[in-house]
Amino acid sequence: MAVTAGVAIAGLGVYVMVGHLGFLPHPWFQLSALAAGAALFPLCRRFPVAVLLTLAVLSGLSPGVGPITAAAAYAIARRTVRTRWRARLLATAGGLAVGSAAAVAPWLGPGPVPYGLALGLVLASTAVVVPGLVGTAHGQQGRLLRALRERGDAAERARRFADSEARIHERSRIAAEMHDLVGHRLSLISLHAGGLELALDRAAPELREEAVLVRRTTRDAMRELRQALGVLGPLGRDTGPDALTDATGTRADIETLVAESRDGGIAVRLDWTGPDLVARPAPVRRAVHRVVREALTNVHRYATASHVTVTVVHDDERVRVTVRNGAPPKQPAAARDMGTGRGLTGLRERVELLGGSFDAAALPSGGFEVDATVPADPAAPAEPSNADETEETREARDRPGADVRAGADERSGGRQPGDEEPVPAERPTTEALMLAVGLVGLCVLMVLGVTFVYATRPHAAGPRPLPRVGMTYEEVAGLGVLDNAAVRAAATGHEPPRPGGSAGCIYPFNGATESRPGSLIVARYCFDAAQRLIAIDHFTVPSVRDAAPWETP
């Protein structure tokens, strides 16, 4: 309703301006056409084609319908997706506006048909073509933004699925490591229980059944562990046989990784502060090993010629591992494909499961840094870096395909897939203001165009009527008969007596003509006290004619 009222007011403004300029024949008919156009405008969403074509015809009959037609053309062109259909519709509407203006020009327009065509072209361009093009541009821009937003959401969902897969992959790797290590411990327990069974068979037969029970329970536990985690065997082999020993993550193990990188042509330096990690739990040592190995692997891929520093700081509360490389002097070819980042995601998952914090980011100098901090004793883990993320949220996040609304990283700005792009509160007001300004500009162009057409049309004008006795002074002056001081001065002393009852006379310049050399015919219009013309006299007065320079003796 507000839009309808706004376009109706704009149409009424054009009607008033054109009428004020005197270019509005049959005003009541044109006002009726304006009312009909305002009544049809709300139907443009349900019947776009019929409404636009009807408004185009009405705009040819009455310029006041032009703003309503412009608003309808803009709205319909903005919603229409098919390009050819939109072009045909706008072309048909413009043609109807031109045709209707030319057809009614002799009766309701400027008169001659060519001027009606000119008026129709003005109305078609300002009421159909320009608004239609603007609506087309805005509609395509909106559809493009929606498509880009959908692609961005799809990319965000794909990234989240990839991160979830990487986290699940890392958890599976941890489970595989647990399968190997716990299975090894259970094997030792079963072996010792068998030896205890043989020893008790001779020393204390009454306790032999307890040893048998321990051995059988251990065997059942191993079988159930294989059934539950046996499918993760391939992931366990990804870790490598050397990574699943008691030496994994110790200083000697890290020095071995650094030495292997040096042998591969990487300039690596190890800085170890604090005691060795031999006494620390296996999950802590394996986390340290995985961070260093994954970081060095990325250096081998993307920064082969750079210098690398591996820093391990171990104290009573935590173990901090930092792997930093400088900017390579030349970007390797492999760096063009930046990879999926799943390795870093897996490292983050492993470290955060231990209650630690993980960060990996590019440096301002062009290098890269991986920084991980894990608690030295997992029984008393340090507070997680993301304290706002609850365990329920983490479990829901780890499910494949989960769409968790909380805990979005800062790179996505807190916006989740499927969310609409945040729109500033002032955007609707700004857009409405811009459209209103554009409509006012079109109204001004319409008024100027209509004024130009009507002002240049031919006027049926006959010979100017002559003043006659009995006319008032205003009527005589309206015919262009005005007093001239020079003619009055020439008549002074040479005019005949004024008629009786005259209160004053005027001597117009257009009434003075030269009859022959040396004489001038002067016209005199005399009025009575009531300012009515009572006499028109013509008489001759002498004139002065200077000789040409070459005639001067």
Structural notes for this entry:
The chain is an alpha+beta fold and 553 residues long. The chain is built from 16 helices and nine strands. Strands 1-2-3-5-4 form a five-stranded mixed beta sheet, covered by helices on one side. Helix 11 links the parallel strand 1 (267-273) and strand 2. The longest helix has 91 residues, at 113-203. The two termini are 90 Å apart. The model is unreliable at 233-243 and 380-426 (pLDDT under 50).
**What form results from the Cα inertia axes?**
rod-shaped
**What is the string of helix and strand elements?**
HHHHHHHHHHEHEEHEEHHHHEEEE
Instruction: Give the N-to-C terminal Cα separation.
Output: 90 Å
User: How many E strands?
Assistant: 9
In round numbers, the mean pLDDT is 80
Please tally the helical runs, counting DSSP H or I stretches of 4 or more residues.
16
Protein traits:
four-stranded antiparallel sheet, five-stranded mixed sheet, alpha+beta, 16 helices, 553 residues, 11% strand, 55% helix, rod-shaped
Give the topology.
Blueprint: H1 2-20, H2 27-40, H3 48-61, H4 66-79, H5 83-103, H6 105-108, H7 113-203, H8 208-229, H9 233-239, H10 251-263, E1 267-273, H11 282-302, E2 307-314, E3 318-325, H12 342-353, E4 357-362, E5 368-375, H13 391-398, H14 427-456, H15 473-478, H16 485-491, E6 504-506, E7 513-516, E8 519-527, E9 533-542
Parallel strand pairs: 1-2
Antiparallel strand pairs: 2-3, 3-5, 4-5, 6-8, 7-8, 8-9
Helix pairs in contact: 1-2, 1-4, 1-14, 2-3, 3-4, 3-5, 4-7, 4-14, 5-7, 7-8, 7-9, 7-12, 7-14, 10-11, 11-12
